[in-house]
Amino acid sequence: MEAHTGDRLLTHGRTVGQHDRVAEIIEVLGDGGTPPYRLRFEDGHESLMSPGPDSVVQHTAAQRDREPY
Predict the structure, then answer these.
(1) Long-range contacts: 48-52, Cβ < 8 Å, 24+?
(2) In the chain, how long is the greatest CA-to-CA distance?
(3) Among candidate residues 8, 2, 12, the one with its CA nearest the CA of residue 53
(4) SS3 (DSSP) at 65
(5) DSSP state letter for 21
(6) pLDDT at position 39 over 90
(7) Distance CA 28, CA 2 (A)
(8) Is the pTM of this model over 0.85?
(9) How far is CA 19 from CA 2, 11, 22, 31, 39, in A?
(10) Where is pLDDT greater, at 63 or 3?
(11) What is the pLDDT of residues 8-30, one digit of tens each?
């Protein structure tokens, strides 16, 4: 998993009735974009997280424009 500041992290709910959570990556603490990440959730809460296989990085439009084809 590789992410950059400004990307979003989508974590899928793991049980019935649990909603997906979306957070903005505000700091990447690992080498080369790897976890852990400092996240800011929609309610303003901040957390340090090393996401598992139930999480997906959503790259920002600016990041997609910089990636080679």
Answers:
(1) 49/9, 49/23, 51/1, 51/9, 51/11
(2) 39
(3) 12
(4) helix
(5) E
(6) yes
(7) 9
(8) no
(9) 24, 9, 10, 30, 17
(10) 3
(11) 999 988 788 878 899 999 999 99
Q: Letter for the amino acid at 37? A: Y
Q: Please, what is the average pLDDT of the chain?
A: 87
Task: Report residue 20 as tokens.
Answer: 């997906």
Rounded distance between C-alpha atoms, residue 35 and residue 2, angstroms: 8
Tell me how far apart the terminal alpha carbons of the chain are, to the nearest angstrom.
19
Half-sphere exposure of 40 (CA within 13 A, CB side): 8
Place of tokens 């910089």: 66
